């Protein structure tokens, strides 16, 4: 039987993340944290990282919350709260810097989805490493999703829901970051 990871050490990190993202929905706070290329170029460098945790609207927040819950169900036991926080910080910075350096057409950006792609890729590699048969399926599923997004472009329907273009580039950048974070797993014993 499948059991949910309900121990506080597994439950608190995603709850804290979504509470943090909820607090950042306050408009006056959100506006000073959004990735805005023009303002970043003027020296507001914190926006590269902070933009990962703010959202365009509540539907955007909800879609990302569903992703957080999905990852929690699949991989909560793989991370201590410290490792969870470290992964979120690293992947948030990785994704923001990647967008800033490699996506000059993205002028405004918000959302957790880029770094969440990194978190799920790391978890899929960990699944494979510990012998979970579904790990390879999850990894191939994410890879297929990324390839499809790059081929077909961003979903217009989701874009309408979140009042913004879906930044599929962030998904790819985050996934690559998750692979980089997973490199040490290759040297760990089962």
TrEMBL record:
One of its GO terms (cellular component) is membrane. It comes from the Bacteria. Pfam families: Rhomboid. One of its GO terms (molecular function) is serine-type endopeptidase activity. InterPro entries: Peptidase_S54_rhomboid_dom (IPR022764), Rhom-like_SP_proteobac (IPR023826), Rhomboid-like_sf (IPR035952). Keywords: Membrane, Transmembrane, Transmembrane helix. Residues 43-186 form the Peptidase S54 rhomboid domain. The chain crosses the membrane at residues 12-29, 58-76, 83-102, 108-125, 130-148, 168-187. This is Rhombosortase.
